[in-house]
Design brief:
By secondary structure, the chain is an alpha/beta fold. The chain has 2 domains: about 210 residues, Spore Coat Polysaccharide Biosynthesis Protein SpsA, Chain A (Alpha-Beta Complex), CATH 3.90.550; about 100 residues, no CATH class. The chain is built from 14 helices and 9 strands. β2, α2 and β3 form a beta-alpha-beta unit. α9 packs parallel to α14 and α12 runs antiparallel to α14. InterPro entries: Glyco_trans_2-like, Nucleotide-diphossugar_trans. It comes from Copranaerobaculum intestinale. One of its GO terms (molecular function) is hexosyltransferase activity.
């Protein structure tokens, strides 16, 4: 099976060479590397070209103009020719056995269409911060048969740790415009119970700025982050994106005659997020009734299980606009 890697870049001159070195140093070699750049204003592409021209790997560099991270990856995906497609961020570092381990999972089970793994979290200076699964509160030991519900409630598949079969990419078309590519692919793979979850840590996943992960934030830190997101309009957009994304998923399931139980489950998520997106127009009494009535729903349909956090979100949405 041929291996393709899609790597999206944007002003990544500080780390890009380290990542390229790790990709080109795999025990099982990569056959093809597609770099899709989103209009970088630094030396990212110059560094990449100077490094790759000295390697034996087949590569292609494509320049885009501010497509955004999701469209950037989709553009790169269209250009791949490999049987197995790996996804890569510009600032991470792969362990030398990443392709070897992940390819073994695909070779052992033809039904597996997506493999995701754990990762070592590092800061800008490569100091270890922990691991990905622990930081997002992901419990790998839960029932694999419930994978569709698990991935709906808490998207745990991280693109930087993911590889897919080409057939999954083709099956997932057209992608939802309201979800990230890795989230959409994980939903489609989960429909056929085709996700393999590995506990192995196969990349150093760099944490900085907006890509910080973690669930155990203090209330003050969460308040500051929430306030900043609301002031930028990101909270409203997040809820609406989820809602429209689930609507896209429902249409996909119907079109592909998916399991009726999955369709019903997605309907439940749609109803839940419809209510969540209406918070800013509700009275305090209505919000209180909704939260009181749906405490169990928070555990079923949302990663936010703290009603106090929902009240905080309501007040900020109500009075910061």
């Amino acid at each position: 099976m041929k291996i393709s890697v899609v790597l999206c870049t944007y002003n990544g001159e500080k780390y890009i060479e380290k990542q390229l070195k790790s990709i080109c140093s795999q025990i099982i070699s990569v056959d093809e590397l597609i770099i899709s750049d989103d209009f970088s204003q630094d030396n990212t592409l110059l560094i990449a070209e100077q490094f790759l021209c000295q390697q034996s790997i087949s590569y292609r560099i494509v320049k885009n103009s501010n497509r955004g991270v999701c469209n950037n990856f989709l553009n790169a995906l269209k250009l791949t020719k490999g049987d197995i497609i790996f996804f890569s961020d510009q600032d991470d570092i792969w362990m030398s056995n990443k392709t070897e381990v992940i390819m073994s999972y695909f070779q052992k089970d033809d039904h597996v269409s997506l493999v995701c793994t754990n990762a070592v979290l590092i800061d800008n200076d490569k100091n270890v911060l922990g691991d990905l699964y622990s930081s997002i509160g992901f419990n790998q030991t839960q029932d694999q048969d419930d994978i569709f519900h698990r991935v709906l409630k808490k998207p745990f598949v991280t693109g930087a740790t993911m590889a897919i079969r080409r057939e999954l990419y083709e099956k997932a078309l057209p992608f939802s415009k309201h979800m990230l590519h890795d989230q959409w692919l994980s939903y489609i793979a989960a429909c056929d119970n085709g996700i393999y979850i590995s506990s192995e840590k196969l990349i150093y996943y760099r944490q900085h700025g907006e890509n910080l992960v973690g669930v155990d934030k203090g209330i003050c830190e969460r308040f500051v982050k929430l306030k900043r997101r609301i002031s930028c309009g990101k909270v409203d957009n997040y809820g609406e994106r989820l809602l429209f994304g689930y609507l896209d998923l429902k249409q996909y399931l119907i079109a592909h005659n998916a399991d009726r139980n999955y369709q019903t489950l997605v309907d439940d998520f749609i109803e839940f997020w419809k209510i969540r997106t209406e918070f800013k127009t509700m009275s305090l009494f209505d919000v209180r009734q909704v939260i009181k009535k749906s405490k169990k729903d928070y555990c079923k349909y949302s990663t936010t299980m703290n009603p106090a956090y929902e009240y905080l979100k309501y007040f900020l949405l109500k009075f910061m606009k």
